[in-house]
Amino acid sequence: MVKKSIKNFKEAEGYLYDIPRFTSKHGIEETKVFLEKLGSPDLSMKIIHVAGTNGKGSVCAYLDSVLRKAGLKVGLFTSPHLVDICERFRINGENISYGEFYSEFINIYDSLDWEAIEKDKPGAYHPTFFEFLFFMAMELFKKAGVEWCILETGLGGLLDATNSVHTKEAAVITRIDLDHMEYLGNTKAEIAVQKAGIIGSGKPYVYGDFVPEASSAIISEAEKKGEGKAYAAGPANIKVLQNLPERVDFCLVDGYYKNVYLCLDTIASYQAENASLAVKAIEAAGLETVVTPEILKEGLMECHWAGRMEEVLEGVYVDGAHNPDGIRAFLDTVAKDKEGTKRILVFGVVGDKDYSGMIGEIARSGYFESVLVTPLKTGRSADVGSIAGVFAGCGMKTEVFQDSVKALKEAIKKKKDIEKDAPERFPGVRIYITGSLYLVGEIKEYVEF
Q1: Which contacts of 132-136 are long-range, i.e. CB under 8 A and separated by 24 or more positions?
Q2: Claim: this prediction has a pTM higher than 0.85
Q3: CATH topology of domain 9-233+268-301
Q4: What is the pLDDT of residues 335-361, one digit of tens each?
Q5: For labeling, which of 132, 211, 393, 408 is most exposed (least CB within 10 Å)?
Q6: Which SS3 state, helix, strand or coil, does residue 174 take?
């Protein structure tokens, strides 16, 4: 491998996407060594680290919104992006520019030991795609003077590149489900152990208390590290009061904020759970005196997290649910539709997901008039024939399309036809698009551009 001259953002982005061809994931110690070579930029900011199977991006977004509302300078690093790679890096609520991306890419690129890499010396280090982006984030945030960094893991926790930071103010573990089992374990408890790897020695941590075996595993792992103070959010202290057409109102029974009534600008009832975890993280990180109840309420209400029950066109909603637990949460929100609402589903999924389990949940709900199946642009897409076959086995007929845009256009046509034929019989027709964040990104890119 030879060092190249990379002249602009597009070339830098292309280089990053080519990385999987010539490198593989490294051990956490190698990542730490390179982070220290950069001067340990992570030490310039306070970090809240978030892992979990479902909801971790949303928790990060709620934290980011509330801390910014409190007047703090915040850096947010999340993955994956939906449309633009710069979405992964946000400073005070704004995506970084292409110029900033390119400049930081070159900084990391030139920091590599190219002599060792070109001669393929033992131990020569070249970051993976995700590691490279993580290093860029830490450098970008340091140079911007970020005070608080909200850091989302990529995969797992214990061995994730983001876990190479030296210290963190608090760790957050969201809801655990069976996902990425080839890497993380075959049970929810085993997966929880990997996620709990982000808990710092003796440091406070927050966990979603929704799956007993996962909660037990998280607590056990924390005890091994010095029994940092635990904060839990679960059914015992989260009560959704009402799901209105445009928002979710809920009550959180909380240690510091007491019985606080909160409102979210979303139709997704599952976001009450994620917002509650963010509130607990604020306490765990010692920010409760900075974040007043008024700031908390305003920050949560002002948060908008793309791709999670997001209305992208009138009556068209995208949701990034990509495993059975995520689909169950998605369906809980769909169930809040007005009685008599007709629904059309556009579904696409990555091949290594449990799409049989996801489809089983959808079929049992009985919510959808018709199902349109589409492949994803990624090479990881599940075969549409296989998807259609699973739906058929559950007693549901499907239509198969060549791509997501064709599927969306047909869904919109069906919606208009239903509304035209019998407008007085139905309170409305909704199109729901789910199964993968890749699919959400494709739809958003088409709608927005």
Answers
A1: 132/16, 132/19, 132/105, 132/108, 133/16, 133/77, 133/79, 133/88, 133/89, 134/31, 134/77, 134/161, 134/162, 134/164, 135/34, 135/35, 135/38, 135/108, 136/89, 136/101, 136/104, 136/105, 136/107, 136/108
A2: yes
A3: UDP-N-acetylmuramoyl-L-alanine:D-glutamate ligase (3.40.1190)
A4: 988 888 999 999 999 998 999 999 999
A5: 393
A6: coil
Query: Minimal CA–CA distance to 405: which of 284, 304, 316?
Result: 316
Domain covering 310-448 assigned CATH 2.60.40.2150 in the classification? no
Q: CA-CA distance, 115 to 50, in Å (whole number)?
A: 36
pLDDT digits (tens, 9 = 90+) for 80-139: 999 999 999 999 999 999 999 999 999 999 999 999 999 989 889 999 999 999 999 999
CA 101 to chain centre: 21
Structure tokens at 121: 């010396």
Cα Dmax for the chain: 73
Residue 74 in tokens = 């915040």
Q: Which of 372, 304, 357, 282 is nearest to 326 (CA)?
A: 357
Cα distance between the two ends of the chain:
36
Domain boundaries, the chain: 9-233+268-301, 310-448
